[in-house]
Amino acid sequence: MDLVIVGFGVVGQGVAEVIQQKREFLHDAFRKKTRIVGVFDSSSYETNKTGLDPSALIKRKASKNKVGKRRYDGDAWRILGALEYDTLIEVTPTNIVSGEPGFTNIATALKSGKNVITSNKGPLALRFRELSDAARKNNVQLRFEATVGGAMPIINLSRELLRGEKILSIRGILNGTCNFILDRMMEEGLPFAQALREAQDMGIAEKDPSYDIDGDDSACKVAILANAIFGLDKKYSDVKKTGIRGVTEDAISLAEEEKKVIRLIGEISPKRLEVAPRLVRIGHPLSIGGTRNIVQIHTDLAGEITVAGKGAGKYETASAILSDLVALLNENKKSRVIRR
Questions:
Q1: Count of domains in the chain?
Q2: Residue 116 belongs to some domain of the structure
Q3: Distance (Å, whole) CA 95 – CA 218
Q4: Per the domain annotation, does 230 fall within a domain?
Q5: Same structural domain for residues 121 and 236?
Q6: 188 within some domain
Q7: Which of 142, 235, 295, 332 has CA 20 to 30 A from 287's CA?
Q8: Half-sphere exposure of residue 149, counting CA atoms within 13 Å on the CB side?
Q9: How far apart are alpha carbons 152 and 141 in whole angstroms?
Q10: Pair (16, 142) in one structural domain
């Protein structure tokens, strides 16, 4: 399978590393070469129809801050239309205002009959139905496990392994930065501002943390889950959202007196899409601390299924992308068997 990676920051480089590490496994399992034939960062690109060396790409990016020898103006979709490949891996930064450039990159690939794997929340939180319809119309797959929960297999678990179940609702902690801040406020009695600074010093929170602490990141994930699992047609703006800026030391102390903690919880059901701080009993799975994410899936037959893990990170996100790649390769393998 020939791949093109658009976006070569931390996640894109992690994907390239993982593809190199797993090349032998992928060949042995699916009897098919998996190679990167094109790669783009924000201003340069490189293509080779016989395959590019992931190690060389990563070294060039580190030494020259450019992944390719050829320059372009950021409109990767124009170049994508002329390339021969099977699957686009779109890992450009999330933009929750317009969804660009990710939306156009993804839409272009789907309309030209290419599969897409993405970690980019913006296009799916804003125009999920449009992209899903494009994939269906062109008989290709749009896969996006990496958009929610990092390495946690929430989407594929719900849509594939739990396909016979009726999923009633989903709730969970979908942002590790907020969880870390709230946990530090409780454990050390820190005021919000100090806990936030600590998270920033450790690289857990961004210099501008608004996207995380105001609940935007969690709301994007809630919208994606609502559409992917409940078949809704919702946008990020349809999610009722309250962040954690208003959580005070007094609120944390009062919760502790009641043997509870405060956590930023995303809630998804056909009738409810919300992100807000909630009281959670100490010892309950959703009282989990640190930067981990956790989701509880409520089903009609299996009851409550809990999935926890690292919600972000270079290799965690690459792991989710790999799971989608394996699913595509498995589909291709089954198709070849049927044709025989």
A1: 2
A2: yes
A3: 14
A4: yes
A5: no
A6: yes
A7: 235
A8: 25
A9: 20
A10: yes
DSSP 93: P
Residues 132 and 200 occupy one common structural domain:
no
Q: What DSSP element (H or E) covers 134?
A: helix 121-137
The answer to whether position 129 is within a domain reads yes
For 155-177, what is each residue's pLDDT tens digit? 999 999 999 999 999 999 999 99
Question: pLDDT of 256-272, one tens digit each?
Answer: 999 999 999 999 999 99
Separation of alpha carbons 268 and 239, rounded Å: 9
Q: Do the Cβ atoms of 143 and 328 come closer than 8 Å?
A: yes
At residue 241, the pLDDT reads 97
Structure tokens at 189: 């009695």
Q: Which sequence positions are flagged as catalytic?
A: 221
Q: 174, 220 in Cβ contact below 8 A?
A: no
Neighbours of 29 (CB within 10 A): 13
Give the DSSP letter of residue 67: S
Residue range(s) defining the domain that contains residue 274: 160-311
Q: What is the pTM of this model?
A: 0.95
Residues 226, 266, single domain; the answer is yes
Q: Look up residue 197 and give its two tokens.
A: 């600074």
